[in-house]
Write a structure and sequence with these properties.
The structure is a single chain. The protein is of the alpha+beta class. It contains 23 helices and 24 strands. It has a 7-stranded antiparallel sheet with strand order 9-19-18-11-16-15-14, with helices on one face. β12 and β13 form a beta hairpin. The radius of gyration is 28 Å and the shape is globular.
């Protein structure tokens, strides 16, 4: 399983030791299979495989093909309700009438029709929502696929041994400067268990550290802990709970060794810095539950550890930094609040807006001075968030967009008083300097233009694994004349689950102009593949919506897809569920699902029941682009429909589409201002290649994927490692002259 995930996440193929031979013919067959899926081998990987025995190529090809098929969603048979989709889909009312007539004229099904107090239950009609043909029958009536010049091609690179690749991916995930998605955090835990003797040099994100610490403890190694909350996270991770501490875990019974280890760690942390007891008050209930399992009274020598639980019970009081800061704000002494917050630099940066509103111009110089002094200790993602927030303060008519730790999003009108432009500019310049100091130290930067509009990543939460998945706020140009959205799912063995794919069509002011869903199969230029109400294993179910962009109502400026749980299990409990879209030209035929046209395929994760994955916008020149949202809506336990979720979904789309995100292009601009030579990615000149070879020229590459033939010695940053572009800490400031 880890082997598959290495390929899917890195596009590197682990290569175990194998006997040499002539694998040319086997590689040709592998090439053909990969090309049908939109993948290709690099010359280096192809040459290596051709030098292996045919059976060795086969052993590599089988898991490789399985991995890339899963990456784009081609591992499922995407059988849709209407075999001719997107052609010959009937009008919604006519279709329901057809199903009703079929039911009442068939004696075997007549009694299945349910008439309730609210009228006819459409889902009770025997022919509604259940496939009427097999996948083979669907394939038999389809035209052959017409290849297009814009079809996706993804390169697969030569990797090291499976053990080397596992350690590399483990180091990458552990060293991430942003919180990981649920899937990546689970992968980190399995890699940590697989590499117990490999210790990453740094683990900046606390919840990731808890996962690694749990694996270390189970392997008999000491954990790395430096705050009391680290201990609470570790206890939850050891109990297979949530190391983010968002959801309280049912703590397991710890062994005596584990109890002593956790209590000894707590004792040492508090003994070294009693001020860290202040963190206990933020999670009192969690500490009470942990105290019940650790029995601290059995360890009289660990007095500092017992203080932790005394604070949680209220037997010992600790005045927190937050209380002192609130007292300073309450008394109107904003300068005192700034001095206090300088001891917690991350909180200082998170409080910039409040400080600037409360203190006005009088506090700006002090605030900039404190930022310059302690900002190097602030997480890169916090600096990026603050920089972005200030950039959006002056937007007229803007809304405030919020997303909690589970990626549940909502918006409110921005009623904050405006900030003086001069003060905003001064604080923004200080943040820019802190960010620029952390960027890669290279002389020449080769940039793939496609990466410039990718938002600087700040969290992987809410984002599923897959292909083409970008951070929230990222923009991607849409190539092709048609968009085809798809959702596929397989329900669990004990619950029938009905997911629904819907699309909102919005106008210039984000007002609704129409929708396509199971309740409205067709709109101008848009058509639904038909509602499926169950997805039994192993085949599951697939719903699609096809949009001919030029045929949409001219007033449509935004297209917002939603995936809704109508009934059954939430996304996180489904054995398999993913969303994505294809981009096709009008002339392209083929099956409803063609892997080479898939631009995005993202797993559906999360506890919510309504997902807004991305939104599409039409520019003034008529071209379309996609912007990632990764946001969930508040939802009912069942019967969610786009008619009810459309308005909040529209507001979220407005909040994301109207927001100025800090992008990779902004960081590239900062590097250029610092003197780095920036140019579009391409082959090195002879002079550049010589400088790289002699060590006189430091070269970096920045792109969505690793290109073929990148010379050794070039520092490459691509989507899987994009967070490393902005490290967690920066260089300490030099002496003030």
């Amino acid at each position: 399983m880890v082997h598959t995930e290495i390929i899917q996440r890195t596009l590197r193929v682990p290569l175990p030791a194998a006997e040499p031979g002539d694998g040319t013919a086997a590689v040709r067959r592998l090439d053909a299979a990969l090309l049908s899926l939109g993948f290709a081998l690099t010359a280096d990987l192809r040459a290596h495989l051709e030098g292996l025995a045919p059976d060795a190529v086969l052993r590599t090809a089988v898991p490789l093909l399985a991995a890339v098929r899963g990456l784009v969603g081609a591992d499922a048979e995407h059988n849709v309700y209407f075999a001719d989709f997107p052609r010959n889909v009937p009008d919604t009312v006519e279709f329901w009438l057809e199903c009703l007539v079929a039911a009442v004229t068939d004696p075997a099904h007549r009694d299945a029709v349910v008439l309730g107090p609210d009228g006819l239950d459409l889902l009770s009609l025997p022919s509604y929502g259940r496939l009427r043909h097999t996948y083979a029958e669907l394939a038999a009536v389809r035209d052959a696929f017409v290849a297009g010049a814009k079809d996706r091609w993804t390169l697969l690179h030569r990797g090291g041994t499976p053990e080397e690749e596992a350690r590399l991916l483990y180091t990458d995930l552990a060293g991430s400067t942003v919180p990981l998605s649920d899937a990546d955090r689970d992968l980190l835990g399995r890699l940590a268990a697989q590499c117990p003797d490999h210790e990453p040099s740094a683990i900046p994100v606390r919840e990731n550290r808890a996962v690694v610490n749990a694996a270390r403890v189970l392997a008999g190694h000491p954990p790395v802990l430096d705050t009391v909350t680290d201990v609470l996270r570790l206890a939850q991770a050891l109990s297979d709970g949530d190391p983010t501490l968002v959801a309280p875990a049912r703590l397991r019974s710890f062994t005596r060794r584990e109890r002593r280890l956790l209590l000894t760690a707590l004792d040492g942390i508090v003994a070294a810095d009693p001020g860290k007891l202040a963190d206990v008050g933020r999670r009192v209930q969690g500490w009470k539950r942990l105290g019940e399992g650790l029995h601290p009274h059995e360890y009289p020598a660990l007095g500092h550890a017992r203080d932790v639980f005394a604070v949680a019970r209220g037997d010992k009081r600790v005045r927190t930094l937050a209380a002192r800061v609130e007292a300073a704000f309450g008394s109107g002494d904003v300068a005192a609040a700034v001095h206090l917050l300088a001891g917690a630099p991350g909180t200082l940066v998170r409080s910039l807006d409040r400080i600037m509103v409360a203190g006005g111009p009088a506090v700006t110089d002090l605030l900039v001075e404190r930022l310059n002094a302690v900002g190097h200790r602030v997480s890169g993602r916090v600096l990026a968030s603050a920089r972005e927030q200030l950039a959006n303060r002056s937007l007229p008519g803007s809304v405030r967009l919020f997303a909690n730790e589970t990626a549940r999003g909502w918006t409110v009108p921005d009623t904050r008083p405006p900030l003086p432009e001069a003060d905003t500019a001064a604080v923004t310049a200080a943040l820019d300097a802190l960010i620029a100091d952390r960027l890669p130290d290279v002389d020449l930067l080769l940039v793939d233009p496609a990466v410039r509009d990718v938002a600087v990543p700040r969290s992987g939460r809410g984002a599923g694994k897959g292909t083409g998945v970008l951070p929230r706020g990222s923009v991607t140009a849409v190539e092709g004349e048609r968009l085809r959205f798809f959702v596929h799912w397989v329900e669990g063995p004990d619950t029938t689950t009905d997911l629904d794919l819907s699309v909102m069509l919005l106008g210039e002011d984000f007002g609704p102009l129409g929708q396509v869903s199971w309740t409205n199969l067709k709109d101008t230029g848009a058509v639904h593949s038909g509602d499926l109400v169950e997805a039994p294993a192993p085949g599951g179910a697939t719903e699609m919506i096809d949009l001919e962009l030029a045929a949409l109502d001219p007033g449509v400026r935004y297209v917002v897809p939603q995936v809704l749980v109508y009934s059954g299990d939430r996304f996180t409990f489904l054995p398999e569920a993913f969303f994505g879209y294809m981009s096709l030209d009008t002339a392209q035929e083929g099956m409803p699902f063609e892997p080479r046209t898939v631009r995005v395929r993202s797993d559906l994760e999360g506890e919510s029941r309504v997902l807004v994955p991305l939104a599409f916008a039409k520019g003034e020149d008529g071209t379309w682009s996609a912007r990632w949202m990764h946001l969930f809506l508040a939802a009912d336990e069942q019967f969610n429909r786009v008619e009810e979720t459309g308005v909040p979904g529209n507001l979220l789309a407005r909040g994301v589409l109207s927001r100025r995100y800090l992008t990779v292009g902004d960081l590239v601009g900062m590097m250029a201002e610092r003197g780095v030579r920036v140019r579009e990615a391409g082959p090195l000149t002879e002079e550049e290649a010589e400088g790289l070879a002699t060590g006189g020229l430091r070269v970096g590459y920045l792109g969505t994927e690793l290109p073929e033939g990148l010379p050794d010695g070039v520092r490459a940053i691509t989507l899987p490692t994009l967070a490393s572009l902005l490290p967690d800490t920066g260089p300490e400031p030099g002496p003030v002259s």
